Amino acid sequence: MRSSHCINLPFTPIIEYQDPHICGTTHLFPDMGERYQRQRAQQMHVWVLILLLFHISIPASTQLTQTPTPFKVGLILDTKYPIGQVALPSIQIAIADFYTANPNSTKHLIVVQRDSSSNVLNAASAGESVHAILGPGTAPEAAVVSDLGTKTNIPIISFSVTSQSVAPCCFPFFVRAAPSDAIQVRAIAALIQEYGWRRVVPIYEDDDHGASLLSLLVDALDDVEAVIPYSSSIRFSATVDHISSELYRLQTLQTRVFVINTCVNLAVRILTIANQIGMMSEGYVWILTEQLTSLLGWIENESMQGVLGVSTQIPASERLNGFKRRWSRQFLIENPDADPLRVASDLSNYAVWAYDATWALALAAEHLGPLVNGELNMTKPCRIVNVVDGKARQIGVWTQNEGLMGRLRPVIWAGDSMVTPKGWDQPSSGKRLRFAVPAPIDLGFQSFLNLEVDKTTNQTTAKGFVLEMFEAAVRQLPYGVLFDYVPVEDASYDSLVEFIANGSYDGIVADLTITAERSMFVDFTLPYKQSGIAILALAVKDKGSKNTWVLVKPLKPSLWGISTAFFILTGIIIWFMEYPSNEEFRGPWWRNFGTIIGFSFSTIVYAHTERITTNFSRIVIIVWLFVVFILTSSYTANLSSMLTVKQLRPSVSDINDLKRSGANVGYLQRSFVKDYLLKLGFKESRVLPLKSPQQYAEALTTGRVAAIVDETPYLGVFLDNHCDGYQMSSEIWKTGGFGFAFQKGSTLTADLSRAILKITETDESSAIEQKWFYQDQSLCSTKDNPYTSEKLGFESFETLFWITGGTTGLCCVIALIDFYMQNKDKLSEIVADNPWKTSLRKIWELFSKAADNTDNSSIASSA
Which residues are listed as membrane-spanning (predicted)? Predict the structure, then answer.
């Protein structure tokens, strides 16, 4: 049921604030109205504060009189600045519209205006007593006035302050009638994500408003995996020299994406100086926040070319167009020196918000008004604009539920470039990261890592698989990284991890194994090479190996099966074509069966004794014998290889057997494998460090160690050059692989992990590994299978089988056609007069009779 306080309004605000207690209001945005109502129904808070104040301050008797009661409202604006200039005409139009639509109102707003240009506190406290205050225009001013309003119980309604530093939770008498910064920072973050930029530098005014937006921007960028490496705060009173100095410092950074959140005057000064020092050229990105984008029409500055902006979207409508025309006329009356064309073309959001805030205040003076947590609900879409030739051109729309709607339109960037900036550049100066590299490199393992130090320049040059993988990953980063390799002499890998943890270096670039213990002190990237632990020992002949079924191992089961099928099929086809003309292929069924099998498999050794009489049979047998020759030759060669290869195994393949034997064990110096062996129960005196593959071979050959326990990549390098006499066991323990390590919390960790994934998903990673490890790889026997020769499969002989199958089939078809042509009439009678079973039997009898006739003809000719 509608409230008794409901009134029918023939005229509605430009942005609708729906309340179930107000009848007859309609949304100007029907596509958003239903969702808007649901949000308001869920979050509706009553403007109880204002209502109570109004009822306390206005006696009941005056509410019943027909004469409107004066209702004084303070208006604090600085009309020297754009916000004050655009808001004043809107407020006047809103008051006139409201009382035109509500001629029977019991109260009438009387605006008492004060100028805040000199001192906002004086403007707020001076003069007449008021029931509410509209304004002021900036967040610092709003904070001062809101504090005064809390002390005097006077509501403060702001139509321009978006900062969270001034919020109803802190100032209970403060009411926001503009969108919160929490909305626009999410739109900015979506824009950053859309273009793939990972680092952003905010430039904000050094006050509470700027700091408030910075904290919101940090959280929003974190959601899209972007960071703020540096932020710049500039005071409103900053000199040209100070702004220039700060911009020069930003120019030395690698980040080229800047978000400006200052007042209009300061933003103009910043962009003008940025243009002068070359920071508005190609490759730079400048993004303006709401308080600047909404006033772009009032900023005459050529330095704005190519910047992006975010502002609340107010959908076009006839209602809005009508307001825009009336507002332009009113503005020119109060500012006769303004450019009529510019005024007519640009309507600031602040003008619309001032109108709606005034309308809402007038409505609240009459009835109950709606609020959401002390704020008029302003959850609206944001538009993304691109400034071109002094005008804001919309390139996209962002909504809270859908994010960016579709693809953004092409952008003309700073420097009139059409190329999307990558968001970073190699800085001319700045901090160079120091990455620790172990030195000296173990001899024989330089393919992993190798350092060369120029004694003249003391410059370190690094080469090897590890360094090439690292630099390939760095090239994939969406920003530049300045770094130097710093050799760390005679330090274990665990010591290097400690150096990173205490901040001595920024990271480790080495063949460093990822372990759980090390990950407690540093952050690892994803592994760029897999690894595990295995045992290397002298090779001994495997006496226990059994070769019972070695005869069937040269061929795969698929080839055995297909070959057998073709042997039988060829025998059947030969029998079929020879049966009519060759007595050796006729007789009882058991004799025919023996003939087929015997003839088929005798072709393996070319020992078939049956005489072939027809030309088609000769063609089939010639092709088949060629296939048999290829098969038997391949089988013989593969079997010979299997029987002659040495059947070897490592003399030690079990870690527990090695521990029980009491023999010495070797490991690569500086490796974590030593700690692994000690944890397994090996005595430290039995665990011997080795430096190179040559020492591996020497220690095993002389018996200094019974086995070497090491990571599989190193053992693989050893076996590449020492195949004979050594064997590696299967992997006994899986490790995390090789990774790069950085200080805890470093953004490089996640970024390089993504980069490693990119290069491992392409051929680049394989090409780098092939370059450093497999140039002169020897053919070593595998560790798991004693038969090193590869089994032969059907795919190796597929073409041969297609040839013999096609030839056999073709000859068989021609033979059938010949039989049909000779017995065409008889076959037609048999098929026409008999069921199919009887037809088959009589066709066979006809076929057999043809064979008998052939024999009789042969006997007669002989006689």
Answer: 44-61, 559-577, 589-607, 619-637, 800-820
- 192 and 255 in contact (C-beta within 8 Å)? no
Q: Which fold, 550-645+795-822?
A: Helix Hairpins (1.10.287)
Q: How many CB atoms lie within 10 A of CB 725?
A: 12
pLDDT reported for residue 124: 58
Torsion of CA 800, 802, 805, 811, to 10 degrees: -100
- Residue 315 is classified by DSSP as -
Are the beta carbons of 736 and 527 closer than 8 angstroms? yes
What's the pLDDT tens digit per position in 206-225?
887 778 888 899 999 999 98
Among candidate residues 199, 190, 225, 197, the one with its CA nearest the CA of residue 383: 190
Residue 499 has pLDDT above 80, yes or no: yes
pLDDT at 857: 45
- Among residues 87, 99, 80, 172, which one has the least CA distance to residue 357? 87
Which tokens hold the place of 646?
């040495």
For residue 161, count CB atoms less than 10 angstroms from its CB and return exposed for 0-12, middle for 13-18, buried for 19 or more: buried
Rounded distance, CA 344 to CA 388, Å?
18
pLDDT tens-digit readout, 774-809: 655 444 444 444 444 567 888 888 888 999 899 888
Question: Which residues on neighbouring strands pair with residue 538, listed in sequence order?
Answer: 726
Other CB atoms within 10 Å distance of the CB of residue 495: 13
Region of residue 387 (left: phi > 0; alpha: psi -120 to 50; beta: else): beta
Residue 710 CA to its chain's centroid (Å): 36
| Class of domain 181-317+378-404 (CATH, top level) | alpha beta
> What Cα–Cα distance (Å) separates residue 27 from each residue in 4, 11, 402?
22, 11, 22
Answer positive or negative: Cα dihedral of 350, 352, 354, 357. negative
pTM reported for the whole predicted model: 0.59
- Write the burial class of residue 417 (CB in 10 Å: 0-12 exposed, 13-18 middle, 19+ buried): middle
Q: Is the dihedral of CA 554, 560, 562, 564 positive or negative?
A: positive
509 SS3 class: strand
Strand intervals (E) in 707-848: 707-711, 726-728, 733-734, 738-742
The answer to whether the CB of 723 falls within 8 A of the CB of 780 is: yes
Residue 302 burial by CB count (10 A; 0-12/13-18/19+): exposed, middle or buried? exposed
Architecture of domain 531-545+648-735: 3-Layer(aba) Sandwich (3.40)
Q: How far apart are CA 94 and CA 87, in angstroms?
A: 11
3-state secondary structure of 12: coil
Average pLDDT over all residues of the chain: 79
CATH number of 433-530: 3.40.190.10
* C-alpha to C-alpha distance for 313 and 384, rounded to whole angstroms: 9
* Element at 495 (helix H, strand E): helix 493-501
Question: Rounded CA gap, 94 and 133, in Å?
Answer: 15
Strands 707-711 and 532-541: antiparallel
Domain ranges in the chain with CATH number 3.40.190.10? 433-530, 531-545+648-735
Instruction: In the chain, list all ranges with CATH 1.10.287.
Output: 550-645+795-822
| Amino acid 782: pLDDT | 45
Distance CA 713, CA 28 (A): 70
Per cent of the chain over pLDDT 70 is: 80
| Confidence tier at 20 by pLDDT (50, 70, 90) | very low
- Type of residue numbered 783: K
Positive or negative, the CA dihedral 627, 628, 630, 634 is: positive
Exposure letters 537-572 (e unless 16+ CB within 10 A, then b): bbbeeeeeeeeeeeeeebbbeebeebbeebbebbbb
- Please report which helix (H) or strand (E) contains residue 541, including its range: strand 532-541
The pLDDT confidence band at residue 161, using thresholds 50, 70 and 90, is confident
